[in-house]
Amino acid sequence: MTYALKTYMKDKVELINSQLEQFIYAMQIPERLQASMLYSVRAGGKRIRPILMLAASEAYGEQDNRAMSVACAIEMIHTYSLIHDDLPSMDDDDIRRGQPTNHKQFDEATAILAGDGLLTTAFYTISNNDSLSDNEKAYLVKELAKASGPEGMVAGQMLDMEGENRTLTLEELESIHRRKTGELLRFSAVAGAFIGGANAQQLEEIETYAKYLGLLFQIQDDILDVIGDEHHIGKPVGSDQTNHKSTYPQLLGLDGAIEQKEHYALKAKQALEKAGVDSSYLEDIIDYISNRNK
Amino acid sequence: MTYALKTYMKDKVELINSQLEQFIYAMQIPERLQASMLYSVRAGGKRIRPILMLAASEAYGEQDNRAMSVACAIEMIHTYSLIHDDLPSMDDDDIRRGQPTNHKQFDEATAILAGDGLLTTAFYTISNNDSLSDNEKAYLVKELAKASGPEGMVAGQMLDMEGENRTLTLEELESIHRRKTGELLRFSAVAGAFIGGANAQQLEEIETYAKYLGLLFQIQDDILDVIGDEHHIGKPVGSDQTNHKSTYPQLLGLDGAIEQKEHYALKAKQALEKAGVDSSYLEDIIDYISNRNK
């Protein structure tokens, strides 16, 4: 990761974390429910989606803090999806980022409700931000609902579970990943560019850029599962194979997967050039996602 | 129930049911997820919330079909909350309206995702309706997110579970019901009046009207659990007592509960008079909710 991106991310992560907590503290939420929502929000993570969103908005000249509430809403949606995906009836994960998952720390009912609470709060946070125009609110709510809904992330989790224990084609695999992780990354970049004032053609290029980011994200995830350092990635290496998940290395071989990754990184860079922005951060994010070790 | 309200409800229920299905069919949703969403949406129910919403919008002169998408969004939120509340880790109900609950008919993971899918689709349905202005969309999304979120319905379910197996005060009981059922009834009436063009003072009176409707709704639920006909109400009579739930009859005695109900019905009628509408339907709904036998 470039030093510039590292510094940028560090600054933004602090702002995002503090804002996220403030949004949740500002509401009158029953104690245990609030604690459960805060627990997962605080569990950290790279905050790559809100950072992507902020970088995209700034790339088009957004100067003030209007984008921050949307960035936080995105992270709330991401966090809700992790809580629900970890549930015993779903992926049944006990550990996430080295800590007990929400339902392990609290209980299943509380975890489901914390997820529901974060999902609804995301829409509240956008529609309650008076520095956004009504037109911006309506656009952002619609696109976020689409990205996170039963055509997007909810579909992705459903298809992911249905696809376990059988070998998927590369097309099926990418279709699942597009919905499960790609849609929210796409929304993040597009929402940022939209708030920054990008025009329709630029939004389209940013969308293409984000589409390849999503594919890069997943392919690197799969590669790390084969060659990663267990301590870094926070889950057992080889767990995809144990869980009979279809992966890029399995379908293309490790070398093929790495080659595919480089192809996608190039595509992302080309889209970014066409998007008419001079943002080293957006370009650095491509390399960061391609080469991260966790 | 008056004949006029009966006819009105019958007409509206048909429209609502057909529109609800159309919204879900119009989306590209994985087959099993879509089936699960449709299953619960089709499981019927009285559709009292969307009907209240439509009656309120028409009371203020709304003529066209702009309110229908909001009415459907409300029913999606209601349906999602039933699916999640029925889950084994929550209220653990196997039967709802005489049919297997969603997780019994499908499975737990699918039920959780169907709920998530309906919740997000509600926000999509409002923000995707081009006959609403951006100002209306922003207002409706914000108010719906607040009513359904961790200060509203999600809080209500959390507090309801925490309150089991101990005796609540009347104040605690009403605070839980206000969030669990009252908030969405409130939103339904207020959203309808808002779309119909009510002014700020009228909105406030409609809100008061709806607040008492919510209390009436719950008090009659509790009374039916004591004196109702099992066949009509679709769950075993006396199940609140078996489940150690605090109820109005338990706290006030049966006669006291009936007296309280009449007091609330009067309050609702007074608010309606002040709201400056001449809607026999909104008035009939008070009596309907107070005296329903299921």
From TrEMBL, chains A, B:
Pfam families reported for this sequence: polyprenyl_synt
Taxon lineage: Bacteria, Bacillati, Bacillota, Bacilli, Bacillales
Cofactor(s) the record lists: Mg(2+)
PROSITE patterns: POLYPRENYL_SYNTHASE_1, POLYPRENYL_SYNTHASE_2
Family: Belongs to the FPP/GGPP synthase family.
InterPro entries (alphabetical): Isoprenoid_synthase_dom_sf, Polyprenyl_synt, Polyprenyl_synt_CS, Prenyl_diphosphate_synthase
MF terms (GO), sorted A to Z: (2E,6E)-farnesyl diphosphate synthase activity; metal ion binding
Annotated GO CC locations: cytoplasm
Name the record gives this protein: Farnesyl diphosphate synthase
EC number: 2.5.1.10
SUPFAM superfamilies documented for this protein: Terpenoid synthases
Record's catalysed reaction(s): isopentenyl diphosphate + (2E)-geranyl diphosphate = (2E,6E)-farnesyl diphosphate + diphosphate
Alphabetical keyword list: Isoprene biosynthesis, Magnesium, Metal-binding, Transferase
GO biological processes: terpenoid biosynthetic process
